Amino acid sequence: MEMKYIRNFCIIAHIDHGKSTLADRLLETTKTITEREMQNQVLDDMDLEKERGITIKSHAIQMDYIYKKERYILNLIDTPGHVDFSYEVSRAIAACEGALLLVDATQGIQAQTISNLYLALDSGLQIIPVLNKIDMDGAMIEEVKDQIVDLIGIERDSIMLASGKTGQGVPEILEQIIERIEPPKGDPAAPLQALIFDSVYNSFRGIIAYFKIVNGTLKKGDKVKFVNTGMEYYADEVGVLKLKLFPQNTLSSGDVGYIITGIKDSSEVKVGDTITVLDNPCAEAIQGFEEVKPMVFAGVYPIDTDDYQELRESIDKLKLNDASLVYEPESSAALGFGFRCGFLGLLHMEIVQERLEREFNMTVITTIPNVSYKAYTSDGELHIVNNPSEFPDPGRLDYCEEPYIQASIITKPDYIGPIMKLCMDKRGIILNQTYLTTTRIEMIFELPLAEIVFDFYDKLKSISRGYASFDYHPTGYKEATIVKMDLKLNGENVDPLSALIHQSRAYEFGKQICEKLKELLPRQQFQIAIQAAIGAKVIARETISALRKDVTAKCYGGDISRKRKLLEKQKEGKKKMKQIGTVEIPQSAFMAVLKLD
To answer: Where would a tag sit more exposed on the chain, N or C end, judged by fewer CB atoms within 10 A?
Structure first.
């Protein structure tokens, strides 16, 4: 097909603004799917996505549409909305020429709308603003139109009105996509340059890579090379993406499609990589490729140590579908063998844990999450620390750096005070605040990443009654006083509850963790001492008293020395028990640490 009849576009929106529902209506209107195949959130094929109402994995689908008696091909490249998956969003945007900016008429512009909009504008995309959910009672159409005009500086009349639920305004959106979004530019005769924007794992065919051809032509059977990884393969099958895969013999510049080469290892296919043909390779790769960097690290252990091998196989299989998961084996004195995993954020960590449970029936223990620190020793060496056990000895440590982020929070003016206090308590600095409208304010903070990986998002939602939206991006490292806090039970270190923490927060955190464990640990026949310590110095302590049998109950009367003798005997027994007794830590204790107030 000629390039002038192709349109590549994505939908960018905040979570829960109706992106997947609008995609359903577009597929229905273009008759890409039959009524029999139709279901809600048809592009979200995981149960988890449907339950939570979020897109975890981006999808692409091709639609045909007749406009002014000409047949057009519209490639919709769906994107996840959550901040944790922003790298996937940036690569999907790089494969498009236009974007539908979807804004909920009942909620207005939110933080991730702005962040994804800037990504799209930086890539030079044509933006079509769409006001969704106009059929709802709480729709503030004129007010939200004002917000969009202020944000993009666009004509009021060019804002589309639609309802993903009823299908109102969807044919007009399709016409505007053809009218306003430019066809892709490229040279079909040039050497092949194709951008990989996503990949999925198929248990029969191996890894299927989704790409957009920028220049050149790709034929079935060509020998291809993935430029950044340097790997070479044969194109066993190429084709376009409808609801199922449609094989083709040739794809040309401007086309969005898939390639199957029989790859079994997900680390060989990287989002943002360039595909070229060995016979006529391109001079340079498409710009913008970078390795996905994990932001949050946590240990994942099987509840029963005998299940280690099963957990390894489960994580290997999960990695095939989730290329951004990073893991390596590690062992702990308390929990046995497990894995140190790197996640894009806390939501990503939660989803991986839930998928392990649902898809592989693996219930796991997750340790305290922490971020990646840079530790410089006195001999000038740099150590990347992802795990408290890797932290250098304080005697050898020169200084430490921790990662910082720039956070954007959009809220109503009523909640400025509580949000300011929350961010200041988390060692944040306010950089800027702007009134987007009279009822919406954007606040920009600089915060340490370590402070937001626990419960920041939950607290922000509760103090703003759900009105605040949050988005962030990393800005680099800054020097900080970081200490390793160990947790001891009867003098024994409990590795999974060790944490790297800023010195100013260590005492408070140690006290909270000791109090929480005192509530959760079951009492034993002997006394349990719970201590939080930095090096040899104990900074907090709680004691769980022993369960005590009344051994003197049978002594009714008689000499006091008889009672004393029995109590001394009991005391000796407790002492012996303490030496050989071990304390079982329930799973609820590990989970509760993540939810400390």
So the answer is: C
**Residue holding tokens 């080469």?**
261
- CATH number for the region 3-180 comes to 3.40.50.300
Across 233-249, b (16+ Cβ under 10 Å) vs e yields: bebebbbbbeeebeebe
User: How would you classify the pairing of strands 6-12 and 70-77?
Assistant: parallel
Pairing status of strand 98-104 against strand 6-12 = parallel
Q: Is the pLDDT of residue 553 over 60?
A: no
Contacts of 514 (CB under 8 A, 6+ apart): 487, 530, 531, 532, 540, 541, 542
Instruction: Please state, rounded to an integer, the average pLDDT across all residues of the chain.
Output: 78
CATH 2.40.30.10 for the 193-277 domain, yes or no: yes
**Cα end-to-end span (Å), the chain:** 59
For the chain, domain boundaries: 3-180, 193-277, 296-367, 374-480, 483-594
Strand partners, 76: 9, 61
Q: How many CB atoms sit inside 10 A of residue 287's CB?
A: 9
Packing angle, helices 456-463 and 416-425, rounded to 10: 160
Does this chain's domain 296-367 share its CATH topology with 483-594? yes
What would the CATH number be for the domain defined by 483-594? 3.30.70.2570
Q: What is the pLDDT of residue 551?
A: 62
Tell me the H-state helices in 453-586: 456-463, 503-520, 560-580
Question: Both tokens of residue 53?
Answer: 């109402």
